[in-house]
Amino acid sequence: MLEVAQIREHKDAFVEALKKRNIDAAPLLEQVLAADEQRRSSQTQLDQVLADSNSFSKEIGILFKNGEAQKANLLKEKTAGLKDQSKVLQEALNTATEKLQELLYTIPNIPHDSVPEGNSDEDNEEVFRKGNIPTLHDGAQPHWELAKKYDIIDFELGNKITGAGFPVYKGKGARLQRALISYFLDKNTSAGYTEYQVPHLVNEASGYGTGQLPDKEGQMYHAVADDLYLIPTAEVPVTNMFRGDMVNASDLPITCTGYTPCFRREAGSYGAHVRGLNRLHQFDKVEIVRIEHPDNSGVALDGMVAHIKAILDELELPYRVLRLCGGDLGFTSHLTYDFEVFSTAQDRWLEISSVSNFRTFQANRLKLRIKDKDGKKMLAHTLNGSALALPRVLAGILENCQTPEGIKIPKALIPYCGFDTID
Fold it and tell me: Which H/E stretch holds residue 81?
């Protein structure tokens, strides 16, 4: 979330920047400043009352010691009144603090200067494209038909077990899934990321820490009895490993990777564009997360983009990179690049990765700070990216690599899956 001190100092600039998100933030920022003024006023009054109470308590002890009981008892009465006053002020402080926190939770991150204006994904800016879109043979099919033809993914069986959006991978389909996971993890660890296995459910504090709550509460599966949430991405548990930490600048960057299943309700998603693997409620993803010094997060984001480009180059898939416009930018993001693979059989681009720099937005929620060698303390910068999300990568492989004889496996994956063709 945004820092109140920064809002106070740069309010007009923040209002202007948030216009890129098509938001008139001026009234909301005024409410934040008013709530903070109330909080600070209550805190000041409370501090004074507590200081007076402590002073009186010391004086009472001295008076009793000197045999001045009458004066001591008069001060005790004043002290009792101060205690009542402190309770009222503490309640006022708690109310103002909660109100301020609730207001801050509703304000999205400030977009980077390079974020283009726009209302939707149609206004995103293409910044890179690579790979040749293959010419498919007559009778080429989309991946959901190929899955049925080669008996590698059973959507109907998943629907029987759970419901729509929970496919069952079979035979070579399951082996290819496992191969992709291992391949992505190996690419990430060879690039210096430390691998973690993390819980697939998180508590409410973790959801608030990375910004899924309260913004995406309706999109998360909630285990109400235990008040736990199924993770929408490994970003949530991995980043929350550092919640409340004070890290030394000398230990940066902290780089993490992990594979998890991801769970998203995706309420309201219907139609042909979400068929097959295009939109799922449960899917596999390998994530990368970085904790960076503020001076280095921009360079780190560029490095993450280059890393994912290298993976897609090895998979020999046609892809492009988009800089998201203000209207399509995620709530917590300062700057995001999306990667899309071209689906030749569907004749459309499919998003397969999102790489974002959150700057201090998550760290302020997480209370994740850095201590420099000179003792200076500051909020860290956090970044994350998909490296990669499996469903649409798999869809791209099935559709772009299909031939009349079968589906040819990219060379980089053959050592991982143990076969070169699905036929």
Answer: helix 69-105
Collapsed DSSP state (helix, strand, coil) of residue 278: coil
* Angle at CA of residue 262, ends 257 and 263, nearest 5°: 155
| 232 within 8 A of 268, measured Cβ to Cβ | no
Chain-centre distance of CA 262, in angstroms? 13
Q: How far is 188 from 347, CA to CA, in rounded Å?
A: 30
Bridge-based pairing state of the strands 246-248 and 369-371:
parallel
Q: Considering the chain, what is the average pLDDT of its residues?
A: 94
Reduce the DSSP state of residue 342 to 3 states and report it.
strand
Alpha-carbon gap, residue 361 to 330, rounded angstroms:
12
Residue 403: per-residue pLDDT: 96
pLDDT under 70: residue ranges of the chain: 63, 72-73, 75-76, 267-273
Residue 272: what pLDDT? 52
Q: CA nearest 328: which of 117, 121, 108?
A: 121
The letter for the amino acid at 283 is: F
Burial (CB count <10 Å: 0-12, 13-18, 19+), residue 373: exposed
b or e along 325-362 (b: 16 or more beta carbons within 10 Å of the residue's beta carbon)? Answer: bbbbbbebbbbbbbbbbbbbbbeebbebbbbbbbbbbb
CA-to-CA distance for 396 and 305, rounded, in angstroms?
Answer: 19
- Retrieve residue 295's tokens: 């001076």
Tokens of 125: 């800016």
d(CA 351, CA 121): 11
Asked if residue 79 lies in contact with residue 52, where contact means CB atoms within 8 angstroms, the answer is no
> What is d(CA 247, CA 373) in angstroms, rounded to the nearest whole number?
11
Is residue 253 reached through a cis peptide bond, with omega within 30 degrees of 0 on the bond before it? Answer: yes
Whether residue 358 contacts residue 345, with contact meaning beta carbons closer than 8 Å, is answered with no
Q: Distances in Å between the alpha carbon of 90 and those of 87, 96, 285, 401, 414?
A: 5, 10, 46, 66, 65
**Is the pTM for the entire model greater than 0.90?**
yes
Cα–Cα distances in angstroms (integers) from residue 218 to residues 205, 261, 265, 268, in the given order: 16, 19, 8, 11
